[in-house]
Design brief:
Length: about 325
């Protein structure tokens, strides 16, 4: 088996801003696994928040030994972007070698279409109101917040889009005091979920605070080893393949989270259809789906996934799996 990795850049449709900074392109790593005339692909987005860069992740992948098997992967790479791209490429390769869909290999039913949230990046209240108005026909909006002055932004989004369900993502940007200040207003404004209000590692205050709407762990949750630290603090876990280290662990984490009494959200980094495709399997039955990465790009891969508004359809074989 041959493993190849390359860096690819996909421009965004507009500047994307969260509480930690802004970006104008998605820089992804594409892994191709080839064997016997077949090839499988996977994609990851190295994330600086977790100490990853394209160079360090590519080096991890390049250091894989010859002759390793899919079952060896968890021992060779830690949970994170590198293992995700390789794991998904190996599942794609296995499906193409067998001439069946990947869900058949996994013994799972064929996936169904999903409704995804659509993300509005952090901006001034007026700009966020205008962005919300342009997306007002979408059923779920996810809004990036994470500053001490977010109440006007939240009010502005609701004024611009009166009907959609709202997910708020603070990206670790609030203090306990800011969250406590905002919390009583969330139900009034139609907020269905709050993602990662406090910094990971400093979120113990959530255990003693009122949570009028469910609170979701994102940066605090990576793989199954993260689950014990979420108990009593969070109601939902955001499962992303770039955190779990691929489809294999993500599917196991769904089962473990539900067994622990946690709800499931399936999210993504800003990437292409190749990154979203395996996550569609994980998102079947999830309470919240946020797989809108390609909708934020100026151009996606060709071929890519099919989106009709906010409805996302399972991948065709030429896309993945």
């Amino acid at each position: 088996m041959r493993i190849r990795v390359e860096v690819e850049r996909f421009p965004l449709a507009q500047v994307f801003t969260i509480s930690r900074g802004s970006k104008t392109e998605a820089r992804v790593l594409t892994v191709t696994a080839g064997e016997g005339g077949h090839r499988g692909r996977g994609e990851c987005v190295p994330y600086a928040r977790y100490g990853e860069t394209p160079d360090t992740v590519a080096a991890q992948i390049a250091a894989l030994p010859d002759g390793f098997s899919h079952a060896d992967l968890p021992a060779l790479l830690p949970a994170g972007a590198a293992r995700n791209a390789v794991d998904c490429a190996l599942w794609d390769l296995a499906a193409k070698r067998a001439g069946v869909r990947v869900w058949d290999l996994l013994g799972r039913p064929a996936p169904k279409p999903l409704v995804t949230a659509y993300t509005l990046s952090l901006d001034t209240p007026d700009a966020m109101r205008a962005a919300a108005a342009r997306a007002a026909d979408r059923p779920v909006l996810k809004i990036k917040l994470g500053t001490p002055d977010d109440m006007p932004r939240l009010e502005a989004v609701r004024a611009g889009a009166p009907k959609p369900k709202i997910i708020v993502d603070a990206n670790e940007g609030w203090t306990p005091e800011v969250y406590a200040d905002l919390a009583p207003h969330l139900i009034r404004l139609g907020v269905a979920l709050v993602e990662q209000p406090l910094p990971a590692g400093a979120d113990e205050a959530l255990a003693g605070m009122a949570r009028p709407v469910p609170v979701c762990a994102d940066e605090s949750a990576h793989d199954r080893a993260s689950l014990p630290g979420l108990q009593g603090r969070y109601d939902v876990v955001n499962i992303k393949l770039d955190k779990t280290g691929g489809l294999t662990e993500a599917l196991a984490l769904v089962d473990a989270a539900r067994a622990a009494g946690l709800g499931v959200m399936v999210g993504c980094m800003v990437g292409t259809s190749l990154a979203m495709a395996p996550a569609i399997l994980v998102a079947q039955g999830a309470g919240f789906v946020d797989l809108d990465g390609p909708l934020l790009l100026a151009r996606d891969r060709d071929p890519g996934l099919r989106y009709e508004g906010s409805t996302l359809y399972p991948p065709a074989p030429e896309v993945w799996g």
